[in-house]
Amino acid sequence: MTDETTEPAADAPRREPEEELLGALPAPPADWDNPLRDPRDRRLPRVAGPSGLVIFGVTGDLSRKKLMPAVYDLANRGLLPPGFSLLGFARRDWEDQDFAEVVHDAVKEHARTPFREEVWQQLAEGMRFVPGDFDDDQAFEQLRKAVDELDASRGTSGNYAFYLSVPPKFFPKVVQQLKKHGLADGPQGSWRRAVIEKPFGHDLRSAQDLNEIVHGVFDPEQVFRIDHYLGKETVQNILALRFANQMFEPIWNRSFVDHVQITMAEDIGIGGRAGYYDGIGAARDVIQNHLLQLMALTAMEEPASFDAASLLTEKLKVFRAVRLPDDLGLHTVRGQYEGAWQGGAKVCGYLEEDGIDASSKTDTYAAIKLGVNNRRWAGVPFYLRTGKRLGRRVTEIAVVFQRAPHSPDDGLRVRRVVHRVQP
Ligand SMILES: NC(=O)c1ccc[n+]([C@@H]2O[C@H](COP(=O)([O-])OP(=O)(O)OC[C@H]3O[C@@H](n4cnc5c(N)ncnc54)[C@H](OP(=O)(O)O)[C@@H]3O)[C@@H](O)[C@H]2O)c1
Prior knowledge:
Blueprint: H1 17-22, E1 52-56, H2 61-76, E2 85-90, H3 96-110, H4 117-125, E3 127-131, H5 137-154, E4 160-164, H6 171-180, E5 192-196, H7 204-217, E6 223-225, H8 233-243, E7 257-265, H9 274-277, H10 281-299, H11 308-321, E8 322-323, H12 328-331, E9 332-335, E10 340-342, E11 345-347, E12 365-372, E13 382-387, E14 394-401, E15 416-422
Parallel strand pairs: 1-2, 1-4, 2-3, 4-5, 5-6, 7-13
Antiparallel strand pairs: 7-14, 8-12, 9-12, 10-11, 12-13, 14-15
The structure holds NADP nicotinamide-adenine-dinucleotide phosphate.
NADP nicotinamide-adenine-dinucleotide phosphate binds at residues 57-63, 90-92, 133-134, 165-168, 197-198, 276.
């Protein structure tokens, strides 16, 4: 949500806020006056203290398209400490220089802020690459030495986050290797953190097993299970919409709401990601993480504050009140897309996609009807649905209110408040 004074004209081209501000600006100061800041963002900037980041799986798709560009954007906004160091780990036989070139290309292609040579040079000085397999003890020893060396040469003070951007089957192995090689514990007074990608297990049992392994090495506060959706401003704005005013709260309950629809629809197919997607499918890829998070933010009570612990407390109360229906088959739908025409082009069905077994049962569409058994929501269905190759790309939460008891015109049917998350 924006206040009306800063809303761009409806026909203005969509641009990143910093693009509008930039022009030919000098190097950004790391403070409140940083011209790369969105002027609507009134929070005080939080520049990270001395630290470094190790990305496992740094040659992969996520790292190239999202992680490395995001690191650069932070540097460009002056939010990284001067000695920040970035270490990559993967199996390629690369030198530091090869790695820096790959990061350079990824940044140029995918970063959101403009490329600035001086920012890049400073970032590149702190880049290191460690080649190796996750089974390779020697590689992890080399990684430990690289971290020690960067501590000494760039003042990272032992503070490191380990980002596991790797196929999920390797999460346990990497965490155990970090422990074995003394990387999970830094020097006195420093911090170590683990960032774990999705999916976190493929069912309840495997998620619990993984949790046990992770918490055998790291304390809960050291572990960050990433849900990229939660970082979206539009998702965080659900809280502002609900709790920053007096308007919606009085009607946000079973007395006024008929049902809630939470939808994440994609118009694309699986692209080149057969290896990742097959065997996982829509419900595991989207419902159990993104859509349940959106549901919790929609259904929860007001938290005592917006800190992580208070939000978690209220979200958990929602999930504990959700009961799966006994007749699950009647309350769920699963499907696969078939070949058809889309936007004037012929597109193939899921079973014809490259790398997909013709007998695959993986769902590319999944929907479920859930209830929240508490005083606010009893009897109000929450419909969660997601799919690929649908009519358009949209993520939204539609709170559908009950019909008015009387309407002067049968054609008046608008009774939804829709919170658009994306585009
Ligand atoms: N891609 C996305 O948009 C996306 C979105 C949300 C979540 N995720 C999650 O992010 C994680 C990474 O996804 P991705 O798409 O980037 O995967 P990916 O393209 O398959 O990359 C996997 C990475 O892991 C490395 N790797 C694999 N096996 C290894 C081994 N035995 N030893 C050392 N390195 C190994 C690969 O390095 P080399 O092959 O070069 O050695 C590569 O860098 C996954 O957990 C995925 O579920 C991805």
